[in-house]
Input
Amino acid sequence: MNQTKEYYLGDGLYASDDGWQVILRAPRAPDGDHFVALESDVLDNFFLWLEKTRSLKITVQKIVT
Output
């Protein structure tokens, strides 16, 4: 997997991006890590759900590096 550097979100959860999907990783000893991979459509649906359930307005801004 061609992952970028992981970003610590807090509460034992890490995020990275492999260019296709967002990868969430939760380290769990001794059984190994748990992973969830969110493709673009699923990530969009997650943002919509957050907006609805948390009364938020989420905007996306592309960061040029």
